[in-house]
User: Fold these one by one.
Assistant:
Number 1:
Amino acid sequence: MAGCYFMGIDTGTFASKGVIIDADANVIAESSAEHGMENPKPGYYEHDAEAVWWHDFCQISNDLIAKSGIDPKDIKGVAASALGADCLPVDEECRPLRKAILYGIDARALDQCHELTEMYGESQIKEWFGRPLGSSDVMPKILWIKENEPEVYAKTHKFLTGSSYITAKLTGEYYVDKFLGLASFNPLYREDGTPDPDLCKPICRPEQLASVGETTDIAGCVTPQAAQETGLAVGTPVTVGTDDSGAEGISCGIGRLGDLMLQFGSSIYMFLVTDHLVNDDRIWRERFIIPGTFDVSAGTNTAGTLTRWLRDNVFADLKKAGEDGGKNAYAAMAEEASDVPLGSDGLICLPYFAGERTPINDPYASGVYFGLRTSHTRAHLYRAGLEGVAFSINQHFKIFEEDGAPISRVMAAGGGTKNPLWMQIVADVTGKEISVPSIGIGASYGDAMMAAVGTGAWSGFGELASKVRPGVTYKPDMENHERYERYQRVFDALYPATKELMHELNC
């Protein structure tokens, strides 16, 4: 299939990444762009959709085309993914009316969660969500805008997520995929993807919601304006797109029952493919991207955000050395920590530096280093941070299996997989093999693969999965796993023991 290429671009919390692949899933070109995240108030996290999301997409698209030397007409399909469960109001020209309210790390709408729970009753909320309302839900975010920014609400043509905004900018069509839409906007859509007028009434007008399609459906084609800005050819098919975590899972070949994707990004996101919906107050569940399947999912607020904080504030000399042409700061940090023994000489880190989503669902939780002694060094702080994230992951694995959703295979993706020390720690703490595919680009690679499916170049998700090539597998050291159980018990007990004190500090 000479002259047949596919582009995928993903927008994350601190960076956007893009890739062009050929019909055999070979990578032809890569590009990336870093950006910031705004934190105007405690619990408020935002992106400027025009200056970050669309700017990055256009920059990366043009860069990919230039690097590859490909005629834009030979790019047969484009797909975008972005942060999930964002809330962006736009006008009739798809111009943002305010900065995007980000996914579950933004906790501004907790009062609206309580208000909606009182309105509908806890039993109805539980029936809809399988858990209490929380910061990862879009419905309370829309209500927050309606109650706090009525002038914005009145002008809103559509409430979009990151992927639906980018797709709209490319095609002029407003879509959100079923995987993201039916879960994040629950219960505003019916099961068939049409808005429910009665349930929308207290929140928004039905016409303010995007249309729903499968992730690989064609939403539309690149418009002349979008072609001018992105370098793509007019008329290039664009799929509906999805959220970054779903695309990341697809890039790993996830799809069979018992497959679990573990995404190491700014935060941790994970989902386990199941054949039914699982209800548990501590975690989430939804329909999966692959039709006919479901998943249980969970997400923390920090992972790469924690290692980034340590780099910037504790290892600033290594950061500067890397910027001056020396060793990458993260590689140098891992090298320092490699000499620290298992358990970090009795130092435990609660990685709740930005509050926490699952399993504690507490935006007022705080980060903790427990057990500090004068013998500890910054290398101990770093290793304890990696171990703390691993202990949190292990809490989730135990919850999944308690709920009758066994894990048969763990595939890891995201920037954190470049850290072998971290991957081995996670394998040892959980007692599970952690496999990383040979092409670890992540969500943008999954996007490009789904563009191949959506345009009919590949027959479906089965053919897609067959093109994912195995890479490194980290096998757990079961003696280390047993030794870690002692530290896991302390980790598990530390949050309940300090919760009230954390809340007192945050009042």
Number 2:
Amino acid sequence: MPDLSGIVKAYDIRGVVGEQLDASLVRDFGAAFALLIKAESPSVVIGHDMRDSSPGLSAAFAEGVTSQGLDVVSIGLCSTDELYFASGSLNMPGAMFTASHNPAKYNGIKMCRAGASPVGQDTGLSEIRDTVEQGVPEFEGKTGSVSERDVLADYAAYLRNLVDLSHSRPLKIVVDAGNGMGGHTVPTVFAGLPIEVVPMYFELDGSFPNHEANPLDPKNIVDLQAKVREVGADAGVAFDGDADRCFVVDERGEPVSPSAITALVAVRELAKEPGGTVIHNLITSKGVPEIVAEHGGKPVRTRVGHSFIKAEMARTGAIFGGEHSAHYYFRDFWRADTGMLAALHVLAALGEQDGPLSALTQDFSRYAASGEINSTVTDQVARMLAVKDAYADKPGVEIDELDGLTVQLPGGAWFNLRPSNTEPLLRLNVEAADRAAVEALTDDVLVIVRG
């Protein structure tokens, strides 16, 4: 039996094309997915990003699905959140072929049930892996059919209906698509809005010739920052490769933290539904739950990861959820993450008032943060325990282990240390009142982590 543990991750399937992932294996994944959801739906919707390998792999997956008697609706080139829109609006399970911001040699599959409900290790992905490893059973019945459908215009109209920009003052924004799927979706979503878009790297190119399509890495937004200053834009927006995450810079080219965006969008959603619940992961700034509570909302803290966010949103009926990684989840979007909808909210908030984005977001940026700092370690458990032991007996310290190790210090500073699921890394996030306090606490923890 093949061992697929290296490519079947917590939330998706991802690997190097030609070495770990090929058409034959992907066909088996398609058949196994069909077996998982056959009792729930007669059809599956499939989309793919701009990588050279994506059309062929998505076609192989479709062949696997139809081999089990289910039909396929192919929406072709799309962003991940456009696939979620199709899954939600058509009420079909879905599969998206993308490796997000990973290099060109990678590809992968993000799967969901009807209504964009996630398929992760605990919600079907492990069963899919087991089926493929043990051998997919042959289906004796009639093979399903494949049809094509373009949902881009419907996706754009749906988003514009959720955020009213009709009263916005004219805005100029720079959009860096990173040669990813934002270059495909932005022109249609922004058509007819009072927004002048200055495009950067809209050409679809899965080799990412300009920079890695990961806007959370500071080196990948340098071009965006420079262009915003050069053209005098009101803001800049960068999307990752599959355009389900967005990162924002203000009119000065300065980054706006995803926590500040989470708080801003949460306030707007709470204005529509007072008293609503807002989900935030435990690495998000503590300013987020503070601001949510101040605006009459109910903040709920959860583990990092979209499957945890979506599950908690379903349990609580939350109206919105945000993560430090620039994933934003909306109940009005089937609890799925969509960077595009978050971007529209930010631009609507900016366009409704006369001040610059830096002034608008200042109220939502209360603390200094380190960003995520990775350390390669030989023994994750031992290093985590060493950090816990170093802080456990200090007066006024509170420790919880909901996701890794979170240490709350007297005076408000805190840090979270958690292991990577796929690499020998520990990930550190620190927040404190000011930059000096962040740097001091970061240094203290890293001395222990790195021995």
